[in-house]
Task: structure prediction
Amino acid sequence: MVVHYLCWPVDPLERLRLHLSRMLGYCGDLFGRSAHPGRQEEEHLRRPSDLMTADIPNALKLLNDSRHMIDGSRRGVDLYARVLGGVMDLLPVLATLRRSSAEADRNHALKIFLDALSEVNQQIARVFNLLRDELTSFSSLDTVQRVRDIETAFHSCVEDFRRNQKTLSEDAASVATLAAAHEGIVRLLGYLKEISEATEALREFDSRR
Result:
C-alpha cells in the first residue's frame, strides 16, 4: 500500500474522471454548435475536436496506471474504460459532422436535413453536458432515458424528412453526403447510449465504495 501511494500520490482514476468529464464537455460544445450548419461554422467545430484528440493520450496513460492500483477498484476501472472507449469511438463521428457542416451550404437536401435536426442536436448537446456533470457530481441525471427519448425524436425527424423531401432532385454525391450524415448520427446515438449506461453503472459503483 505504501508503494501504491508513492507511485500514485494523486489517484489516477480520479484524474481520469476529470479528463473524461472535460472531454464530454467538448462534445457538448461541438454538438451544440452543429445545430446551425454552414461552412462558416467549421473553424468553430474544429477546436473541440482538436482538444479531445489532445486529451486522449493522457487519458489512456491514466487508464493504464489505474489498472495497476491495488485498492479493489478494478470494476470502476473497467467502467471508466467503457466511457473512454465510447468517447474515442466518437472521434470519426465528429469528423463526419464537421464535413457535413462544411457541405451544408452547397447541398440543399443536407441543409434541410440538418436544420430539421436542430432540436435533436441541442438535446444531444444537453445530454453530453449532463454526462459531464454526472461524472463530477456522482448524481443520477437519468441520461440513459434521455438518450432513448432522443433516439425516438431522431427517427421521427428522419421519417418526416423522407415524407416531405421526396421531390428533391439531388446528384449521387449529395445523396452520399446526406447518407453519411444520417449514419453518423445513428452511430453517435449508439456511442452515447454506451457512455450513458457506463456512467450510470459508475454512479452505482461509487455509491457502494
About this structure: The mean pLDDT is 78.
